[in-house]
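Structure first, sequence second, as always.
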């Protein structure tokens, strides 16, 4: 079965991008949100991104049919509309109970041979797969932010995932313009298992006053050739999402020294400074630009 019709749940930072690259890959896409305001914002982000990609293509003398891509994307507030999707990708808040409840509901709505995928950053895919009632047709499909530009997708398989489903998920990732890697269902998969403890360690370095936040960022950019330093990247990912990831791991693995929650992160989230999306995190942002 080829994946032609895709449902994306959540039109936030990640969901809007996943919907867009799926449509760029030729799929018909239905984006499902909880509230009209969030849906409108997500579709607006897609419009802006498509306009940017069209502008870039023009500069290079290439063609990019933004209108055709956009015509393949529709929004809905009703999960019932996802019934005939070949694949449903979940990209809602990083809360395991909320995700499990969502998949239990989707398991009753979506056609039996439909594939389910979660874009979770950190939770066990197997737990959501069990909740959905179709563990053999469930994978992790972990995209990276910004989805339109980052070339990787992690395809996460559990002990129960059917090999044919893994192959279809990889083919879908390729259709979205990504290079898929396959990995097991372990905390953080490959990238976040390495990246999130690194971000937390940078925060602890700053907490101790060993170096300033801007200097740590400069150090990692110039010393390692990373495109962003750890603080700029945390602002980009969302401080709330980063905290949810660490809280989930600390709860599950309380004795693992790699998983610790920096006080600085907790304090910023408490103040509502969630990063680029709220205009304030470790830095101040105006739209997409750091001030
Ligand atoms: N759609 C279309 N175009 C976009 C875009 C989008 N979503 N986002 C940026 N662009 C455009 C910009 O407008 C810009 O256009 P101009 O050249 O005309 O100004 C162009 O793309 C390049 O963007 P930048 O100017 O910001 O330049 P950059 O070269 O720094 O590239 C970047 C941006 C790719 C984000 C780069 O900084 C980068 O790779 N950063 C690290 C990102 C990263 O590590 N992501 C992973 C986070 S972890 C994660 O996602 C997993 C998790 O579970 C938490
Ligand atoms: P976000 O807060 O930007 O977006 C989440 C969206 O989901 C919101 O618009 C919200 O209205 C919507 N939503 C919540 N519950 C819903 C429901 N029941 N039905 C429909 N819509 C619902 O979050 P995000 O940063 O896009 O993260 C989404 C997921 O992707 C999380 O699991 C996160 O860990 C993961 N992820 C995030 C990043 C990142 O850099 N932010 C990278 C990779 C993976």
């Amino acid at each position: 079965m080829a994946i032609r019709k895709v449902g994306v749940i959540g039109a936030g930072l990640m969901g809007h991008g996943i919907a867009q690259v799926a449509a760029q890959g030729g799929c018909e896409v239905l984006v499902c949100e909880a509230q009209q305001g969030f849906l409108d914002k997500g579709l607006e982000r897609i419009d802006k991104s498509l306009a940017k990609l069209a502008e870039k293509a023009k500069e290079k003398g290439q063609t990019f049919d933004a209108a055709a891509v956009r015509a393949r994307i529709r929004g809905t507030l009703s999960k019932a509309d996802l019934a005939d999707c070949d694949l449903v990708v979940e990209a809602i808040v990083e809360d395991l109970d909320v995700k499990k409840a969502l998949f239990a509901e989707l398991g009753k709505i979506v056609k039996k041979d439909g594939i389910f995928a979660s874009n979770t950053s950190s939770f066990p895919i197997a737990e959501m797969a069990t909740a959905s009632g179709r563990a053999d047709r469930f994978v992790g499909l972990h995209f990276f932010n910004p989805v339109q530009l980052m070339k990787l997708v992690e395809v996460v398989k559990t002990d129960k995932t059917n090999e044919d489903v893994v192959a279809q998920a990889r083919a879908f990732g390729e259709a979205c313009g990504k290079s898929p890697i396959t990995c097991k269902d372990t905390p953080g998969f490959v990238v976040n298992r390495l990246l999130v403890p690194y971000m937390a360690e940078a925060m602890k370095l700053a907490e101790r006053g060993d170096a300033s936040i801007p200097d740590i960022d400069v150090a990692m950019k110039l010393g390692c050739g990373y495109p962003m330093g750890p603080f700029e990247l945390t602002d980009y990912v969302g401080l709330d999402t980063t905290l949810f990831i660490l809280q989930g791991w600390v709860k599950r693995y309380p004795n693992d020294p790699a998983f610790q929650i920096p006080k600085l992160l907790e304090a910023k989230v408490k103040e509502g400074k969630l990063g680029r999306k709220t205009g304030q995190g470790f830095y101040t942002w105006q739209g997409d630009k750091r001030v």
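Margin note: Residues 83 and 200 are 40 Å apart (CA to CA).
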